[in-house]
């Protein structure tokens, strides 16, 4: 078990109904206790990927192994017993997942109730203390605390069953920049403190750059580039990664000069273009890109990209 | 900005397009309580410039945009203040439609879901151009769609809003706003719901359209980075009051107010080493129904002195190197 990766995804295909897959042919592994950032535009399949990892999206092809267990091979009942104790997910605006009519203390006890366990008051108190949250929070309702604190409570609840892996889908969406840093420091701290693996979905690249060790860039349901976060930021190989990195607004005028503005928008995931899926927007696209879909390949350790003409 | 000197002089001669003076807006929040949304807002929007209005949620930036448009909610009280258009005092309602148009955060809420794009774009022009026939208005709509980068505009006019992507809907909104040839375009967080590559496209589009329609833009945003890229002037709002105001270069090279400095420090940068703790501003916005007696930022300010907790600083020029740079602080940095 200790040698198993936290996540091993092989050739994953996720289709909703008969349509074109939302995620197609994704290969990805992540060691235990590591943090992975997943970036991409809306429709790139990043949320679908996250949902598939916790059994909330259908696996139509390929496999997902979590800590050595094949997700598809588990029965529903087995999954229900096993998954919440290993992998938890928090969604965009985690505050919305707290019932406005339930005290935060009760919300924190929910995981025990749902899984038929005795509510462990001591565990709740210990976790709150470990997360640096005052115990007085327990008596309050969500509207009585700040947005940043409610988010921390939502995370505390996700950690209540001591999972080894946390999936966070845009956890900073809607947070003001003045408090965002505090929240991200909190995430970094709990990652180290609990040896927790984190999959961090975000469209905010600067945030991902700071908080993750590895990165996967998705475009129209496929990974176009993956590897060490720092290395990718320093030297993106895929033209899409490069455009995405350069598009982020910055207060640094030097960085602005390197801006690449893409033409057009991402094609509909229901009707992806042939060849390389990025070719209609790619400034470097050649004939080959229109006809032949590039596969993920590697020219250096710890980095893969899917491009015929890498940067 | 590639404005010529002649243009610049012309702007100086005609004075600012819009001036706000001493704007105070309150909200009735029930049980006779009153929350202060805006206090003593003085603001100039020069001809052919983009003014960025930055602040966090609750800072009053949307209220300011609404006050300008005469679109304040019914529990708001326009207590004091004057709005001038080209030097003449006007009622806010008078600006709407003719001199002023607005682009909202979520175009899906602003577009009618069961009307074709073309019909909506034609209707939007009727009040402004009552003498033009529908065919002409339709042609103008198609031309404008092309200008904002929408391919095949004739067919797009037949589409319903849900058939377009989010980025395309936002372009339609901008095209619609520009069709009435407004003097001032108010864009309230127009890129918040959009992806990074589309956000960059829309920012570029706004920059180009300012040059094309020769008007001004009030760009409301919570993103300092975006404002630093797009705007000529920046106004920083905190808890309903302007804490700093300057041209974009001066503001980012010499931020003077501790709040502005803190916000800039919070902005994560790509080249920061990973693992470096992120910066945040400790504390929360004050309760608008119970504001502190002195400077509104004092309770969160690392430089606050006794005076800051007692006396409210007014917006004043910093002096010599950048005369247009104003800040409301007893201890500017």
Q: Give the CATH architecture of chain A.
A: 3-Layer(aba) Sandwich
Just give the CATH class of chain A: Alpha Beta
Output mean pLDDT of chain B: 86
Strand and helix order of chain B:
HEEEHEEHEHHHHHEHEHEEHHHEE
What is the makeup of the main sheet of chain B?
8 strands, mixed
The structural domain count of chain A equals 1
Evaluate the radius of gyration of chain A. Answer: 20 Å
Might you state the CATH topology name of chain A?
Rossmann fold
Morphology call of chain B: globular
- Helical stretch count of chain B? 13
Overview of this structure, please?
The complex is a heterodimer of chains A (311) and B (333). With 311 residues, chain A is an alpha/beta fold. Chain A has one domain (5-86, 163-305): Rossmann fold. In chain A, 32% of the residues lie in helices and 20% in strands. Chain A has eleven helices and twelve strands. Chain A has helices spanning 46-53, 76-82, 104-114, 121-130, 147-159, 177-194, 205-211, 229-234, 239-247, 253-256, 287-291; strands at residues 7-14, 23-30, 35-39, 61-66, 69-70, 87-90, 165-169, 197-201, 214-219, 222-228, 297-300, 303-305. In chain A, strand 4 and strand 5 (69-70) form a beta hairpin. In chain A, helix 3 (104-114) packs parallel to helix 5 (147-159). With 333 residues, chain B is α/β, with parallel strands linked by helices. Chain B is built from 13 helices and twelve strands. Chain B has helices spanning 5-14, 61-69, 92-95, 107-110, 117-126, 134-147, 153-156, 166-179, 196-213, 224-230, 248-253, 258-266, 306-310, and strands at 18-28, 34-45, 50-54, 76-85, 88-90, 100-103, 184-188, 216-221, 233-238, 241-247, 316-317, 326-327. An eight-stranded mixed beta sheet of chain B has the order 6-7-8-3-9-10-12-11, with helices on both faces. A four-stranded antiparallel beta sheet of chain B has the order 2-1-4-5. In chain B, helix 5 (117-126) runs parallel beside helix 8 (166-179). The chains are: A alpha/beta (311), B alpha/beta (333).
């Amino acid at each position: 078990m200790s040698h198993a990766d936290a996540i091993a995804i092989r050739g994953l295909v996720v289709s909703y109904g008969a349509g074109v897959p939302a995620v197609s042919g994704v290969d990805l592994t992540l060691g235990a206790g590591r943090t992975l950032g997943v970036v991409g535009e809306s429709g790139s399949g990043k949320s679908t990927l996250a949902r598939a990892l916790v059994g909330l999206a259908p696996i139509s092809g390929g496999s997902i192994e979590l800590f050595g267990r094949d997700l598809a091979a588990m029965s529903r009942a087995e999954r229900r017993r096993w998954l919440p104790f290993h992998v938890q997910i928090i969604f965009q605006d985690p505050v919305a997942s707290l019932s406005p009519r339930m005290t935060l203390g009760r919300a924190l006890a929910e995981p025990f109730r749902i899984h038929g366990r005795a509510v462990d008051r001591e565990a709740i108190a210990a976790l709150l203390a470990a997360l640096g949250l005052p115990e007085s929070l327990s008596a309050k309702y969500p509207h009585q605390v700040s947005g940043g604190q409610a988010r921390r409570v939502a995370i505390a609840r996700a950690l209540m069953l001591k999972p080894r892996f946390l999936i966070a889908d845009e956890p900073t969406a809607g947070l003001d920049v003045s408090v965002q840093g505090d929240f991200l420091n909190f995430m970094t701290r709990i990652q180290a403190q609990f040896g927790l693996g984190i999959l961090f979905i975000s469209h905010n690249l600067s945030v991902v750059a700071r908080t993750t060790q590895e990165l996967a860039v998705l475009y129209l349901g496929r990974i176009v580039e993956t590897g060490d976060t720092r290395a990718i930021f320093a030297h993106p190989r895929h033209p899409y990664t490069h455009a995405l990195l350069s598009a982020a607004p910055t207060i640094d005028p030097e960085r602005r000069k390197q801006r690449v503005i893409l033409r057009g928008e991402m094609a509909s995931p229901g009707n992806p273009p042939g060849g390389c899926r990025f070719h209609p927007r790619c400034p470097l696209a050649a004939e080959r890109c229109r006809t032949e879909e590039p596969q993920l390949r590697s020219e250096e350790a710890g980095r893969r990209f899917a491009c015929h003409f890498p940067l | 900005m590639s404005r010529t000197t002649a243009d610049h002089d012309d702007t100086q001669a005609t004075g600012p397009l819009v001036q706000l003076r001493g704007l105070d807006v309150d909200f009735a929040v029930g049980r006779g309580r009153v929350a202060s949304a805006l206090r003593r807002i003085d603001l100039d929007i020069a001809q052919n410039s983009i003014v960025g209005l930055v602040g966090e949620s609750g800072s009053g930036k949307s209220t300011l945009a609404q006050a300008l448009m005469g679109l304040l909610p019914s529990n708001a009280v326009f207590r004091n203040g004057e709005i001038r258009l080209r030097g003449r005092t006007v009622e806010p309602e008078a600006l709407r439609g003719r001199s002023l148009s607005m682009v909202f955060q979520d175009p899906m809420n602003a577009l009618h879901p069961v009307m074709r794009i073309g019909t909506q774009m034609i209707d939007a022009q009727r009040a402004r151009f009552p003498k033009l026939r529908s065919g002409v208005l339709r042609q103008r709509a198609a031309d404008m769609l092309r200008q904002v980068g929408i391919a095949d505009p004739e067919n797009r006019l037949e589409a319903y809003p849900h058939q377009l992507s989010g980025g395309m809907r936002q372009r339609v909104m901008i095209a619609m706003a520009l069709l009435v040839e407004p003097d001032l375009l108010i864009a309230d967080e127009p890129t918040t719901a959009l992806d990074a590559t589309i956000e960059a496209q829309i920012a570029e589009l706004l920059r180009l359209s300012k040059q094309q329609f020769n008007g001004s833009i009030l760009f409301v945003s919570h993103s300092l980075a975006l404002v630093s890229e797009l705007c000529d002037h920046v106004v920083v709002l905190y808890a309903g009051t302007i804490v700093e105001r300057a041209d974009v270069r001066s503001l980012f090279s010499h931020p003077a107010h501790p709040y502005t400095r803190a916000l800039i420090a919070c902005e994560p940068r790509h080249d920061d080493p990973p693992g470096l703790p992120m910066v945040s501003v400790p504390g929360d916005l004050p309760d608008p129904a119970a504001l502190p007696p002195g400077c509104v930022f004092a309770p969160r300010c690392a430089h606050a002195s006794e005076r800051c907790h007692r006396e409210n600083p007014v917006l004043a020029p910093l002096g010599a190197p950048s005369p247009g740079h104003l800040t409301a602080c007893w201890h500017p940095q």
